[in-house]
Amino acid sequence: xxxxxxxxxxxxxxxxxxxxxxxxxxxxxxxxxxxxxxxxxxxxxxxxxxxxxxxxxxxxxxxxxxxxxxxxxxxxxxxxxxxxxxxxxxxxxxxxxxxxxxxxxxxxxxxxxxxxxxxxxxxxxxxxxxxxxxxxxxxxxxxxxxxxxxxxxxxxxxxxxxxxxxxxxxxxxxxxxxxxxxxxxxxxxxxxxxxxxxxxxxxxxxxxxxxxxxxxxxxxxxxxxxxxxxxxxxxxxxxxxxxxxxxxxxxxxxxxxxxxxxxxxxxxxxxxxxxxxxxxxxxxxxxxxxxxxxxxxxxxxxxxxxxxxxxxxxxxxxxxxxxxxxxxxxxxxxxxxxxxxxxxxxxxxxxxxxxxxxxxxxxxxxxxxxxxxxxxxxxxxxxxxxxxxxxxxxxxxxxxxxxxxxxxxxxxxxxxxxxxxxxxxxxxxxxxxxxxxxxxxxxx
Length: 444
Ligand code: EPU
Known about the structure:
Blueprint: E1 6-10, E2 15-20, H1 25-34, E3 43-47, H2 53-64, E4 68-70, E5 78-81, H3 95-99, H4 109-116, E6 118-122, H5 137-145, E7 149-153, E8 162-166, E9 176-178, H6 184-194, E10 200-204, H7 210-221, E11 225-227, E12 233-237, E13 245-248, H8 253-266, E14 268-273, H9 281-290, E15 293-297, E16 300-305, E17 314-316, H10 328-335, E18 341-345, H11 355-361, E19 365-369, E20 372-376, E21 386-388, H12 392-403, E22 409-412, H13 417-420, H14 424-430, E23 434-437
Parallel strand pairs: 2-14, 3-13, 9-10, 17-18, 21-22
Antiparallel strand pairs: 1-22, 1-23, 3-5, 4-5, 6-8, 7-8, 10-12, 11-12, 14-16, 15-16, 18-20, 19-20
Helix pairs in contact: 1-2, 1-7, 4-6, 5-6, 6-7, 8-10, 8-12, 10-12
The protein binds uridine-diphosphate-2(N-acetylglucosaminyl) butyric acid (EPU).
């Protein structure tokens, strides 16, 4: 992967060919965290792991607490080996800096408490979507129900807080946990903690994302007893020890949505090899409104859209099986040139609209009212401008906008894309899009 900071996106389409959908970022990172739960010396082999910055950060984080992580060839398996003891204190360098770089570092909270009986975890990083630190009280409240004693200490890295926890008696106890909201991260943390707890745990109002079912599938292969993952109610019967596993990461439905939205934006016919249409239900329906056809195909998903302006639709993000918050920016970008006004509501990460002013700079006409957008379709976006990505999906949205502009667009901050996409530029180029990495100016 070449380090990217600015992309130049030229008017493109229709797109034609095949893209390859990799493993889901938001599953791979949690599966890696779950490897800590196994017995000493146990080896985990993960396939279909995406070659993205966040996976490399998680690898370094696991190494910093004593795990062995080997990934000589990113097209092959990632192998994790659990040492006898892992360090449960992540508040000192180098672990602290790595925790601060990715939100998924929170996924170590449950496993470290369950397996090591203690943890010190600084406030996690990742995209804040303009609202400051993302809260984790649902994680900590639920882990307390399982018997963990947790407190927040100030004076963490950069003046932030540190979650300090211990498990009296060394083993968590199963409990009935009702989440106030189906938080993905809280569901994963309780699930990972409960698999080694004594007795039975139920999680009601659990998140139902395919990544939760993927995590449960891996845990069950490690010897856990998890029922109902992927539904609103998960039941876990704790076991004393988990073992080695081989597991293939579920396909990335957010990456798939990025190519679906690209085709919807500029037309064409593309095969998404490796995508799973069962995880794309709402997006398939909404794109259908716009005249974009999506269907299951052998080994993946097929998408086709006529060139020219597409129809309007309305979107609202919700916990799965609703439309994913991570899919919305790319869909909004595709609707900027639709016929008529489309409405979009962001219910999951309110305030996640940093890409909207950038779309305005390109001639988009979007009115923002709280967590609602009214997207009044314009005939064509204006290129010849520079826009800035502030997070992974905002970056993807701006690339899709650039495909629809009348002249090349510079997308700065494109390094964010490398946190979540292994090869977005090459894949788009492979289906005929005109996207290139801007060469840095020669020094002097
Ligand atoms: N929330 C709380 N308190 C909590 C936990 C969550 O108020 O204790 C709120 C959050 O602030 C947010 C909402 O609940 O408004 C949803 O958060 P959730 O816990 O479900 O999300 P997450 O686990 O922090 C994961 C993904 C996000 C994705 C969300 C929602 C990872 C690493 N991140 O975050 O993905 O947006 O689920 O689907 O799995 C991305 O991939 O770019 C990304 C940000």
